[in-house]
């Protein structure tokens, strides 16, 4: 039996920067893919761990880069090959002339959530967000960063409910872990956040979930973004130079999606996720499993063009984009379509 080490030694390893057609036949191309702390880029963690990348002749090498702008910069500088980016930052960079394309989603549904201190009388906003926004008037609202997508989307929801940004006080609280701490210590009253925030509240039960964008019925400006919550990006130069590598990246991602979406594999997916997602909070393993179950429907490659257009319209409305941008020009013509892309 040929071991993995012997097989690897017998292969020629090249980077994705190499010109296709100029390397030996038995070649494994290294593809450096952006990852994040937490659940991160789970589709490609699974693709690497389960051998789907190797099956298609690539070695998926996960590169932890903590922010979207740094990931895009690293991709443009050829320090990584695939960035995993939020559409808001992506659209702004593309509008300014950055040369890249979206080849898939990687994560489809909007991650936005609102959680509050348990003693506050705030109605659930999944069916009707306006009473919730009214109840939060005058409150301290935690956001990951000031001026970021979370704050801008909260302000847009406030405007749609007849309120304005000045009706709230915004406080930067960082990631869900630090946001949870700020909520418990009453530094903030509510947080516009993302997973595992809702799962922390639902498992530990010392905060309350009042809005989950991925399952809410409105507003359409938020629900209409489901289908493009995160984007897999590669440079235009890489598309032109290495189309076979792009196809291999997509094929590995689709196989990972199929594996993840099979309920029989849930325990193994949790085990892969836990390698990079330890939660140092009470009931951390239970929170991780609940969080993964919550995001599972989102872990698909398909990219919705309509959702991308809605996101561009949103950031134009809130003044983050100076003029309308045609997001069709951002999408690779062979971008992933399965699982909801259109």
TrEMBL record:
Pfam short name (any one): NMT1
InterPro entries: SsuA/THI5
Keyword vocabulary terms for this entry: Signal
Subcellular location: Periplasm
Keyword Mitochondrion attributed: no
Domain SsuA/THI5-like: 46-260
Coiled coil region boundaries: none
Assigned GO CC terms: periplasmic space
Primary site of residence: periplasm
Residues in the signal sequence: 1-18
Superkingdom as given in the UniProt entry: Bacteria
Record-stated family: Belongs to the bacterial solute-binding protein SsuA/TauA family.
PANTHER family, sorted: ALIPHATIC SULFONATES-BINDING PROTEIN-RELATED, TAURINE-BINDING PERIPLASMIC PROTEIN
Protein name (database record): ABC-type nitrate/sulfonate/bicarbonate transport system substrate-binding protein
Natural source organism: Camelimonas lactis
